[in-house]
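HUMAN: I'm a chemist; might I ask for a sequence paired with its structure tokens?

ASSISTANT:
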Amino acid sequence: MNINHAKFRFILLKGVLGWGIPTAILFQLIMYFTGEQDFFDGIISSLIIFPLVGILFGYFLWHSKYKKERNN
């Protein structure tokens, strides 16, 4: 597995699936239980926005991990 494939997989698993989607669902649950909006009113936008931010999260997490491994 080359580094680009490993990086893509890491960002997808850790950033999008590990952070973005769970955070979107958690955010919608909080909005629902606080009475701000119905759960399904904003789920589509949350499932778009949070995974996109998850890509950035995964990217910066990858670089942090790669930098630590390179320094050791």
